[in-house]
Amino acid sequence: MLAGKRIVLGVTGGIAAYKAVEVCRRLVDAGAHVTPIMTDGARHFVGETTLSTLASEAVRTSLWEIDHGADGSPITHTRLGQTADLVIVAPATARVISDLRTGRSADLLSATLIATTAPVLLAPAMHTEMWEHPAVRENLEVLATRGVHVVPPEEGRLAGGDSGAGRLADPATIVEAAEKVLAGTSAAADLAGLAVLVTAGGTREPIDPVRFIGNRSSGKQGYAVAAEAASRGARVTLVTTVDRPPAAGVEVVRVDTADEMHAAVAERSPTCDVVVMAAAVADFKPVDPADRKIKKAGGVPEVVLEPTVDILAALGAAKPAGQTLVGFAAETDDLRANAEAKLSAKGADLIVANDVSAPGAGFEHDTNEVVLLSATGATEVARADKRRIAKAVLDAVTTLRTPNPGSQS
Ligand code: CTP
Predict the structure, then answer these.
(1) For position 185, what pLDDT does the model report?
(2) 310 lines ligand 1 (CB under 6 A)
(3) List of E strands, 333-375
(4) Is the CB of 200 under 6 A from ligand 1?
(5) Whether the CB of 354 sits within 6 Å of ligand 1
(6) 198 CB under 6 A from ligand 1?
(7) Residue of the nearest CA to atom 12 in ligand 1?
(8) Is residue 342 within 6 Å of ligand 1 at its C-beta?
(9) How far does residue 190's CA lie from ligand 1's centre (Å)?
């Protein structure tokens, strides 16, 4: 898997930088072409000569080096970013993680990370307090929704005699993760040429200009489906109620209400090959939202509700030939029976059913645990991060779209 692959190995400033030398050696031994980049911080921890000697090329350290590469390009970061099959950052400090999340191009490594369209694998290493800081957690969560891969740190001895979570993963584990990422991307083109529409987030139904009826959906699962579909070569449109940056290449349409989501989906779905309704669409909306803020002094208001359009059912009733329609089922009891009823009632080809009351599954969590139901049967997908669940959903979609050779007359 690694033989012949061009890998940029970014090394940042942490005590674990010495282990990057071992990562580099293992990658080169496996036949990869490794170009190392060191940040200024990394140069305090390991010698450039060591890494240059073991890698396939001399270490790069500066945005300002003129690099007349094979194609004559003078611009190092864009050339390295464009030609890489994979960019690994090991160790990845809180700083480089934050730069990648915000798109800050502070040095050659962060510029390369922003310039590349290759998959990115981060191996974070830092003190436990930093690893557990909400800012670092949130940065990694956002990066995961954009398809960035992470080899989590391990528990063990840290710099300064401390111990806890935050120790760089073993070099063998990092190289294994790199192989998996490359294996995933080589199967990646299976959605090339397909138009995929995904919805994400919970709709907001206004009661007045400041209040709404909403739900707990975070949009994470829909964003993960959009990111996975884009990384497998699809043209992806994401209709979302959530203000969060999407994965590279995903076109975003922002909506708020069920009616707006319906209009956005109805306009685009007829030309789509796959539609995934991951959004939590409100079932009811206030009949007559007030156009001014309802004042407390006026007494407790009576909010009369009416049903919204069932977007999935409407799509199912008018499904163009060749389109694969995927719905979700958020349940708190009788998961299978309720989900099976939704499969037939809504005319979907696949229902992704989740028990939203189970620990670590459903709304707001980073993980999920689902049952995939189609006319051909049910498959359980064990608890995993939402990107992996997205992969299982799209694997099921490709299976459903593959003609069964036995069915031809
Ligand atoms: N859905 C939709 N339009 C609605 C309500 C739901 O398109 N007005 C879609 C959701 O996006 C999801 C599927 O229908 O893909 C099932 O949603 P869910 O909330 O589980 O079920 P409901 O149909 O709303 O039924 P109930 O709330 O009674 O379980």
Answers:
(1) 64
(2) yes
(3) 350-355, 367-374
(4) no
(5) no
(6) no
(7) 328
(8) yes
(9) 29
pLDDT averaged per 10 residues, the chain (length 409) = 90 95 96 95 94 94 70 65 90 97 94 91 94 94 88 83 85 93 72 95 98 95 91 91 82 97 98 98 97 96 97 98 97 92 97 89 84 95 88 95 62
Q: Is the peptide bond before 124 cis (omega within 30 degrees of 0)?
A: no
Distance 103 CA to ligand 1 centre (A): 36
User: How far away, in angstroms, is 212 Cα from ligand 1 center?
Assistant: 18
The CATH number corresponding to 6-186 among 3.90.105.10, 3.40.50.1950, 3.40.50.970, 3.40.718.10 equals 3.40.50.1950
338 is catalytic: no
CATH number for the 195-401 domain, one of 3.40.50.10300, 3.40.50.300, 3.40.50.150, 3.40.50.1100? 3.40.50.10300
Alpha carbon nearest to ligand 1 atom 27, residue: 283
Long-range contacts of 22-26 (CB under 8 A, 24+ apart): 22/171, 23/88, 23/90, 23/123, 23/171, 23/174, 23/175, 24/51, 24/54, 24/55, 25/54, 26/171, 26/172, 26/175
